[in-house]
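A reminder from the course coordinator: this example appears on the midterm review sheet, so study it carefully.

Given structure:
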């Protein structure tokens, strides 16, 4: 029997989705037929134009809603404004790198709020809508750092571990319902932000592009290849499919073997 990945009639809210992984996931969900709500903290004409373009490309309804994911009320209001949420992708995140004694408290607070607490608030607001609709998918974008650690990334690692824990609790609380909750744990993904770092790394290490990618940027990723935003989106579409109906409360690593080490 063929397994359906047709998401027509579903509405997906993707936080932090006006670029990078979030936008890649939104595109693949739209390709599968889902209506899309893009989000970030800005409220520019180009943000709304991006949603309009996405909708036109895939023949779905797409809109942009600005919300500051560092604010609990704004997270919940995002779901309320959308009015429907069959698929929730918690993707919003920021990063800061410093040794623990030098880690600015305000940076810690911001990372915990945006990378972890926002997922709690959006999930709390979305679950009643999923229950009313009789179907739902919560997909949290964690990280390889949700399963392992690196020095100087205390807040990010703590937040992503927390996201994995929240995913498990959400799954247990919805286990007898047609709602699943899972976390995707990417390694290094080739986003515009990462791509922009490559020329500086080439200069710093006096290496060509391929060498700096393989030996510096992907030193911890055994495949020595970036994952792509389309692969993140494809994984999300799979988790929304009938084939994944009994996959809940777990993590799916898309990290080129990083967490196998």
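Designed residues:
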């Amino acid at each position: 029997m063929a397994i359906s990945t047709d998401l027509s009639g579903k509405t997906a809210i993707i936080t932090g989705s006006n670029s990078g992984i979030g936008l890649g996931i939104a595109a693949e969900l739209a390709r599968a037929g889902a209506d899309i709500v893009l989000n970030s903290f800005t409220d520019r004409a180009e943000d709304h134009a991006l949603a309009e373009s996405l909708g036109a490309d895939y023949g779905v309804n797409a809109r942009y809603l600005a919300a500051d994911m560092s604010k609990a009320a704004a997270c919940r209001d995002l779901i309320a404004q959308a009015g429907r949420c069959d698929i929730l992708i918690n993707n919003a995140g920021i990063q800061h790198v410093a040794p623990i004694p030098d880690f600015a408290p305000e940076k810690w607070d911001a990372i915990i709020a945006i990378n972890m607490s926002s997922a709690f608030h959006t999930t709390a607001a979305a679950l009643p809508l999923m229950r009313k609709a009789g179907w739902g998918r919560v997909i949290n974008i964690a990280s390889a750092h949700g399963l392992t650690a690196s020095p100087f990334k205390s807040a990010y690692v703590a937040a992503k571990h927390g996201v994995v824990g929240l995913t498990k609790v959400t799954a247990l609380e919805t286990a007898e319902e047609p709602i699943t909750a899972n976390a995707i744990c990417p390694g290094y993904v080739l986003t515009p932000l990462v791509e922009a770092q490559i020329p500086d790394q080439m200069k710093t290490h006096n290496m060509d592009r391929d060498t700096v990618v393989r030996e510096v940027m992907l030193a911890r990723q055994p495949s020595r290849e970036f994952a792509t935003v389309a692969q993140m989106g494809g994984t999300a579409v799979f988790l929304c499919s009938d084939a994944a109906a009994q996959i809940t409360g777990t993590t799916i690593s898309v990290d080129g073997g990083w967490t196998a080490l």
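The chain has two domains: 11-187+227-254, 189-225. The radius of gyration is 18 Å.
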